[in-house]
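Shipment paperwork, digital attachment
Item: protein structure file
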Amino acid sequence: MKLAEALARRADSRKRVEQLRSRITGNATYQEGTEPAEDAAALLAEADELIDELESLIRRINRTNSSTQLGADGTMTDALARRDALRLRHSVLIAAADAAAGHGGGHGVFRQLRSELRQFSALPVGELRGRADQVARELRELDTRIQQANWMVDLAE
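Attachment content:
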């Protein structure tokens, strides 16, 4: 099995566990004189089995990620950490640029009425947006390399 297939299977298993959780909690109690729609104990047993399979799959994915080399990016684990950091950096830069631009269209000076105090941007909006664009580009390139590796690398045992 390729790493990408294992990742898809992991995502499906997590969704299935969440669905089982919802069904279990929905059937964990019932009113006197009625029967629950589903057997909560059977659902719980099914969830336990699925979680055990999911744990095994996650262990294999983690072993694969830590042993797969991506050239200058280091291991797959290193690349994933870098990708997370780039996503976070991008969101901070965008939030900072948006806040500095305010609601006035990014001209740097904001006020609604002449009697209000003027507010100035404390950050260079254009520079922040340029940095955000560079980070986004780096993120896309790294994500492409990760995705390529996912489809080429076999899952560790």
